[in-house]
Write a structure and sequence with these properties.
Blueprint (H helix, E strand, L loop, with lengths): L2 H11 L22 E6 L4 E6 L11 E4 L8 E9 L3 E8 L4 E5 L5 E3 L3 E5 L5 E7 L4 E6 L3 E6 L10 E7 L5 E5 L4 E16 L6 E20 L6 E6 L2 E6 L5 E5 L4 E6 L5 E5 L12 E4 L5 E2 L5 E6 L6
Parallel strand pairs: 3-7
Antiparallel strand pairs: 1-2, 1-23, 2-3, 4-5, 5-6, 6-8, 9-10, 10-11, 11-12, 13-14, 14-15, 15-16, 16-17, 17-18, 19-20, 20-21, 21-22
Length: 313
């Protein structure tokens, strides 16, 4: 069986489960087989949101975020989270050096003037996550560390300031685990879990005993929306499911160069595989889907894909 068919077959046999529904400005209020995906596209350097069942054309664009160049060059991560003050906000990291959050307004397109906060953690930022209730954010930089930012008030992201740096070789992904109140992070040959202590400017990450060995450099860390008891991680050599309680690992696929990967609550797998071609060989113009026709945008270079919903799992 070809590798591509392995991915599709896994989706057919995967058990199904439901996840919570999250609202917010511009966020779909139903979790169905026809939902929206958000992607980092590095040629135009935009976060783009499309209905996954429609062509990825400009006419079908649901939302976008265009921060410009400079430190925002080569957007490497995107996701949305819910806040009491602003509703849904977008989170982004860029290999050019910036991380930040933007306000998802009722307008179709957001730009740099919609940014609520940004920082330059250094070291090729690859991911940004929000820790709820304390309003803290954690960035992963591939040069080898996690950077923690804490506010003086949850409702005032403009007060965020760096409060901690944690060494993690090859740091690429971060994901909050609301069930176990842990922050998971992937790096070079490892996935680690951190507990969180303190609030606001006193928030700190603390390493736990939960650590999972990988075969290569960890690339992406995302929820399994069909199973809240596990998370999904990709590395240089494959895709794995990690049981959050036992920290045990199960290999799902041996596909290489998988840069982004998640499973929906309906059991469909969605991924991006670096095509090893062109000036951005780590990216691809095509979003792969196990139960839906693939979507290709001519001239695009997609790096990360996310389910367009604010739920953590």
């Amino acid at each position: 069986m070809k590798r591509r068919n392995l991915l599709r077959a896994a989706a057919i046999t995967a058990p199904l489960a439901t996840v919570g529904i999250a609202g917010g400005v511009g966020v779909a209020l139903a979790d169905t087989a026809n939902f929206k995906v958000m992607l980092t596209e590095q040629v135009q350097n935009k976060v783009m949101v499309f209905d996954k069942n429609s062509s990825f054309s400009d006419a079908n664009r649901y939302k976008s975020f265009s921060p410009g160049g400079g430190g925002w060059y080569n957007l490497s991560d995107c996701r949305i989270r819910d806040t009491a003050e602003f509703g849904a906000i977008g989170l982004a990291a860029a290999s050019g050096g910036k991380v930040g959050i933007w306000n998802i307004t009722s307008e179709k397109d957001q730009e740099l003037n919609d940014v609520l906060w940004s920082a330059s953690p250094g070291g090729n930022p690859h991911a940004l996550e929000r820790i709820p209730n304390v309003g803290a954010y954690v960035a992963a930089s591939s040069d080898g560390y996690l950077t923690v930012y804490g506010p003086t008030a949850v409702s005032k992201p403009s007060t965020l300031a760096q409060v901690q740096k944690v060494t993690l070789a090859g740091a690429h992904g971060v994901l909050w685990d609301p069930n176990n109140k842990l922050l998971w992070a992937c790096g070079n040959k490892v996935v680690k879990a951190y507990s969180v202590s303190g609030t606001y400017r006193n928030v700190r990450l603390n390493a736990t005993s939960k650590s999972v060995a990988l075969s290569g450099l960890g690339h992406d860390l995302q929820p399994d929306y069909g199973d809240s008891g596990r998370i999904l991680v990709t590395d240089t050599y494959g895709v794995y499911a990690i049981n959050k309680s036992t920290a045990s690992k199960t290999r799902l696929h041996e596909n290489t160069r998988i840069k982004s990967y998640f499973r929906t609550s309906t059991g469909e797998y969605i991924w991006i595989r670096g095509d090893n071609a062109g000036s951005r060989d780590w990216a691809s113009p095509t979003l792969r889907m196990s139960a839906t026709a693939d979507r290709t945008r001519s001239g695009a270079e997609f790096y990360k894909a996310r389910r367009y919903a604010t739920a953590y799992n």
